[in-house]
Write a structure and sequence with these properties.
462 residues, alpha/beta, 38% helix
């Protein structure tokens, strides 16, 4: 998931739980970015946002940290840094090599404590709100031209915004759905949804799973439970959409003042009771590996965009992606992934933006998303990826991100505590078969305890 987690915004992500972390398209667009994006073309910048002033004095040197160890992502970023440095001489970028034997989050925490954060940092998107709230991240409204902002997917703009300001930008987004094998569905006489408006209902999916079991699939639904240990982000990213679809929530929407009556409210209880019943009935694959779909144990996989290449390779031309089930109030899906932000410090914001705007050029976004399989963050880069075009195998992901089907995880500094509490409750409900309401009651208490400890996280980003 790079693009929702392993250090991605999805399953294997490493994160700090229950604790506030106190830290942290084309040549024309690049040229616009070089003068700070603060011209008369309508950038809506806070008057107190001075991150970019349109000038770079002398030769600027900036340092960059990236979450991924040896991977296609890291290799691509190294190549991008090299190309950027060769193209111009005013900004010199150093991609810092980080120790491989320490988790990325631990490295960042240590650097924050000692005042050694880099000039440009990437981080898992939902953590942005705690970083911005704590004052350890600089707003970037003054850096981002209107043209660049308009080119971003609406979900990228949404994820990067807190308290009315823009604090982060990702070069890729994420998507989720149900992967199914068309041949299996056809033989079983099961209809295949064509888009969000005709998603299977949860009741319909229950019947489909029972039918598939009679056709030889002992555990027909894969939930990628190998990534569902208590506290892991996959539980929240992957299954909060079921709660939202049933009319529930993880915390009070809007003001985020309490979780009581929301994470343990009727909609949340309904969704997780249905999912627990699937587990009790043996309809969910409980084997602790990620091979349920490709091995043929399961005919349906509830997962994200990052599995498409693997699934399509296993069953060429036979894999299609349909929306997550509708638990009563329409299908909902997850969104969000790693973002770039500027830590508080003395770095030249215009120099940092010069490099970040390079990474946002269509060709560069395309390079990264080819490397990691994620969804391009800009409309101009999406045009370079035919698999996302209408009729393309991954078009559903774009449709969901553009049309409001995708929903961000709670945009509050309390998110780490919210995710930890919900993730642990989900694990208890599915693995331990704990009573759904009592497990969610416990989650509500944990979240509200964190909110109380931080006085509700009053907004103060001036």
């Amino acid at each position: 998931m790079s693009g929702t987690s392993a250090t991605r915004a999805w399953p294997a992500v490493r994160r700090v739980r229950g604790t506030l972390v106190p830290w942290v398209l084309c040549a024309a667009l690049l040229l616009a970015a070089c003068d700070g994006g603060s011209d008369a073309k309508g950038v809506d910048a806070s008057p107190k946002d001075t991150t970019c002033d349109g000038k770079i004095n002398g030769t600027a040197h900036i340092t960059v940290w990236f979450h991924a160890g040896p991977s296609g992502e890291l290799a691509t970023l190294k190549s991008q840094v090299k190309e950027f440095n060769e193209r111009q001489k005013q900004v010199r970028v150093e991609l810092v090599t980080l120790p491989e034997n320490r988790a990325y989050t631990d490295l960042v925490l240590s650097a924050a404590a000692s005042g050694d954060l880099p000039d440009l940092l990437d981080f898992d998107g939902p953590n942005l709100y705690s970083y911005a709230w704590s004052g350890k991240l600089r707003p970037i409204d003054s850096c981002v031209p209107a043209a660049v902002r308009a080119d971003l997917l609406p979900t990228i703009r949404q994820q990067g915004t807190y308290a009315g300001r823009l604090w982060g930008i990702g070069t890729f987004d994420s998507g989720m759905g149900l992967y199914v094998r068309k041949s299996v569905m056809k033989k079983a006489g099961i209809r295949i949804p064509t888009g969000p408006k005709d998603a299977w209902t949860a009741t319909e999916l229950t019947g489909i799973l029972r039918k598939l079991r009679t056709r030889g699939y002992r555990a027909p639904l894969d939930l990628r439970l190998v990534y569902s240990q208590p506290g892991q982000e996959w539980n929240t990213y992957g299954f909060a959409p079921a709660v939202w679809s049933a009319g529930g929530d993880l915390v009070e929407p809007g003001n985020h003042r309490t979780a009581e009556g929301y994470v343990n409210g009727p909609g949340s209880v309904k969704a997780l009771t249905i999912m627990q019943n699937w587990a009790k009935a043996g309809l969910i694959d409980m084997v602790k590996d990620d091979k349920a779909f490709v091995s043929g144990r399961s005919a349906i996989s509830w997962c994200g965009h990052w599995t498409y290449p693997e699934f399509n390779k296993a069953f060429p031309g036979d894999v299609t992606i349909v929306p997550l089930p509708d638990f009563g109030q329409g299908t909902v899906t997850g969104m969000g992934s790693f973002q770039w932000g500027v830590p508080a410090g003395n770095a030249d914001g215009d120099a940092v933006w010069r490099f970040l705007s390079f990474l946002l050029q269509p060709a560069q976004v395309h390079r990264m998303t080819v490397a990691n399989g994620a969804i391009p963050a800009t409309e101009s880069a999406i045009e370079l990826s035919p698999q996302y075009a209408p009729g393309g195998p991954e078009h559903l992901f774009i449709e969901q991100l553009r049309d409001g089907v995708a929903r961000p995880r709670p945009q509050t500094p309390a998110y780490p505590a919210i995710s930890d509490a919900f993730s642990r409750a989900f694990a208890k409900i599915i693995f331990d078969r704990a009573p759904v309401k009592s497990a969610l009651d416990e989650a509500a208490k944990k979240i509200d305890k964190d909110l109380a400890a931080h006085d509700g996280y009053p907004t103060n980003t001036s």
